[in-house]
Design a protein that fits this description.
The protein is of the alpha/beta class. It is 53% helix and 14% strand. The chain folds into 2 domains: 159 residues, NAD(P)-binding Rossmann-like Domain (Rossmann fold, 3-Layer(aba) Sandwich); 118 residues, N-(1-d-carboxylethyl)-l-norvaline Dehydrogenase, domain 2. The strands form 2 sheets. It has a 6-stranded parallel beta sheet with strand order 3-2-1-4-5-6, with helices on both faces. Strands 7-8-9 form a 3-stranded mixed beta sheet. Helix 3 packs parallel to helix 4. The longest helix is centred in the middle third of the chain and has 29 residues. It is globular and about 65 Å long. 43% of the residues are buried.
Length: 285
């Protein structure tokens, strides 16, 4: 049994922390919402609620599942002086890879490690422990922490040096957003031509245009008007923005990414901070 910190008990973080607890580890948890934190502690024996960063002093690993780099930096920088030498932060958030590298350097100066290990698969796979995990950082550190990652994910891939996980997560979400926009436009265009929307999706799923949106989101969250997949449009826009900004810095203009970034950013501004990312379906009309 290890003593593990987990910061960020949102829709993804709660089932992930639950799986670590079920695997027999002692957890120290923290969330910005005290009610969420209290509910998790009440449902799990021997969980410690952290009133401050000092409460993580016994943790050799701390997971973070947070919205963005601003919050990650603030939380982890505040945590660093309290962690034991050799401890590791595993940031599973979606964050800016360049800022991740800077954070890793600050932690290394204190004798601490950092793995960026963002995930893909949504709440359903977080609950099942079958997330795809893309990890960046020192290879030896990754191998030491692989058993913990294996509790949370099924497809665990070491993708390169620190920051590479966050870079690849942003690129993945850009591709996903582009496919969602294209799918939504195709459904509406087909319907305008007189083709039933469900038929458009079904035929695409039997053809070369099938993608994650047509297979796992169109019927389930879009055509029925549910729009409750559990991943916000604001977070999608943030991730696509990271991908679009990454390209030019590396000499890759990524012209389509710039358009998709502007599209998701405008959609998020119009539909509001509570909008699910599947609501892009109604934005394209």
């Amino acid at each position: 049994m290890r003593t593990i910190g987990f910061i960020g008990l949102g829709m993804m973080g709660t089932p992930m922390a639950h799986l670590l607890h079920e695997a027999g580890h002692r957890l120290v948890v923290q969330d910005v919402n005290p009610a969420t934190e209290a509910a998790f502690a009440a449902a799990h024996a021997d969980v410690v609620r952290a009133p401050d960063a000092a409460a993580f002093a016994a943790c050799d690993v701390v997971f973070t599942m947070l919205p963005n780099s601003d919050i990650v930096d603030a939380v982890v920088d505040g945590l660093a002086s309290h962690l034991p030498a050799g401890a590791c932060v595993i940031d599973m958030s979606s964050a800016d890879p360049h800022r991740t590298r800077a954070l890793a350097a600050r932690l290394a100066a204190r004798g601490l490690g950092l793995l960026d290990a963002p995930v893909s698969g949504g709440v359903k796979k977080a609950v099942a422990g079958t997330l795809a995990i893309m990890a960046g950082g020192d290879p030896a550190l990754f191998e030491r922490q692989r058993p913990l990652l294996a509790v949370l994910g099924q497809a665990i891939t070491y993708v390169g040096p620190v920051g590479a996980g966050h870079a690849l997560k942003a690129l993945n979400n850009y591709v996903s957003a582009a496919a969602m926009i294209a799918t939504a436009e195709a459904i509406h265009a087909g319907a305008a031509f007189g083709i039933d929307a469900a038929t458009v999706v079904d035929v695409i799923n039997a053809s070369t245009g099938r993608n994650n949106t047509t297979e796992n989101k169109a019927h389930q969250f879009m055509l029925n008007g549910a729009f409750n997949s559990g991943f916000s449009l604001a977070l999608q826009a943030k991730d696509v923005g990271i991908a679009a900004a990454l390209g030019p810095v590396l000499g890759q203009p990524m012209r389509l990414a710039q358009q998709v970034s502007a599209y998701t950013r405008d959609a998020s501004a119009e539909l509001g901070p509570a909008a699910d990312h599947t609501e892009l379906y109604r934005y394209v009309v």
